[in-house]
Predict the structure.
Amino acid sequence: MTRTLALEIAVQDPAGMRIAGEVGAARVELAQALALGGLTPSPATLELTLEAAGPSGPEVHVLIRPRAGGFHYDADELAIAERDVRWAIGAGAAGVVIGALDAAGRLDIDAMTRLRDAAGGASVTLHRAIDVTADPVATLVAARDLGLRRVLTSGGASAAIDGIDTLRALVAEASGQIEIMAGSGVDAVTAPVLAAIGVDALHFSAKRAVVETGGVRMGSASDGVGGYEVTDRDTAFAVLTALGR
């Protein structure tokens, strides 16, 4: 049987969804603040992105991440994440993207079970929290045992192409029982190389930075140079072309 490589684009708004639809992506991961690694989007963002998808567009999978930083959450943060999972699925999302680690940096089985159950049987993806665990293969096994649909991983590296050996090991361990989606730094150059190792999907953002200089600090991490990121149509289509589509 011929395997069809799925494409997932990380988007932040309805405009990104429309580009994902043009590219023929199977789904989008909807988030806000991709520059921070992604955070849970607002209700209006989800509603309008679902409207942009329409009945035949890419599936919308919502990133559930209550704050930037690491993935070890306290009781309040987990309560927020659980309610956000229920909200996203109730609003019409096809799935959620989650990840929680314990104090030792391993997958937090109790927290993951709680969040999985909140999704009520909808598709659940483990995000790149897997990449900061000591043993991504062992984490994959735990995710599979939890009944998760897929993992988004760079093979424990900052960019997926640099984690390609671990990605190969993950594909072998998955044995088709859980999907392996390679992501982080995926572009027109690396996409064909990653596709060739047998991953089930590629995840990329195809983003372009819009820089604004205001000269006034707007946050603790700001130096007076601000801006934001948008999904870039040409970048997205460059990946498609590189894959021979």
Remarks:
- The radius of gyration is 17 Å.
